[in-house]
Amino acid sequence: MKPIALIIVSIVLVAGVFVSGVSAPSIEKLPRSFKGYELYSWSEDSQWHFTLITGTNRNKTVEEICSGGNIVSETGWVRVHATGVNAIVDVLNKLPRGEEIVWLDSPRSEQSPPGDIEFMFPPEQVIDSVMGYAEDSGLNLQVVAIS
Question: Which residue of 23, 30, 94, 142 is most buried, as measured by CB atoms within 10 A?
Fold first, then answer.
């Protein structure tokens, strides 16, 4: 390998490569998260929107949750947006068995959502469907109302 190519590869490996702007269907597998994942949902334009994001000790901003574009980094940071129940089930299918997910009805931050976004849980039958899928897939999904 030429020295300049070796330097570029080293910089990329040290910085952690971000795969940004990928579509959820093109993601093959999501990494295990040390602190699990957080799931958020809201209805917009008569469709359910979901964001699965890496769990951390800090509160997520509304912008982090709602901003477009999916991110899966080699350092373990994940944010995947899905529109529709089938789409979020497809995303959950990419998680390793035994993964922990907390489905929150709103972000813990004190920020107001932009525009018409109001975080909430979908109807009970949708929650039951997603929870049933998670259980069948060996995922530990908890639904937590914080608002």
Answer: 30
